[in-house]
Amino acid sequence: MGSEAALLLEAADFAAGKHKEQRRKDPEGTPFINHPIGVARILAHEAGVTDIVVLQAALLHDTVEDTDATFSEIEERFGEEVRRVVEEVTDDKTLPKTERKRLQVERAPGSSPRAKLVKLADKLYNLRDLNRCTPQGWSSERVQEYFQWASRVVAGLRGTSPPLEAALQRLFEERGLAPGPPAPPGPGTGTAGDREGREPRAGRGGQ
Q: What pTM was computed for the model?
């Protein structure tokens, strides 16, 4: 299993097994595994990411937060670098939702470049999904509030991936959201070229 293709397939298979009973909250009840695969695809096709650690972490980014997977299991199967990125993008579900959302905004600028890439692609996927359809039980006001919160998170991820940031900015402008102030530099700030490097996802009821 030495090739990068094999490493990606191993991560996809692991994620698929962990998420097998989960569905998105869209009207179609889309299989949840579509989300991490879509996040990885955005990174590869739109951001030009070739860092295998980032792509594996994208496929695995919700496994610990939303399934019975553990960080030690991720490290044993995929290595310490992948585990670190997954850990950075995982919310602590023992905290209240409002606190988890606040921490995402607060911690975004200090995230590693790899984690920033996954966070940007995750937000882009979710916001596109919200534009495509409204999750079950969501009002238009709740959708707009999510966009407003996401714009604050993304402000702290700037300087990471111009293509993803431009795509996100277009979505924010369509919603009448002005660009937020640039986030102050923090530890781990960098660009996609460094190759280092939720509120739960749109389409799930906890979002």
A: 0.86
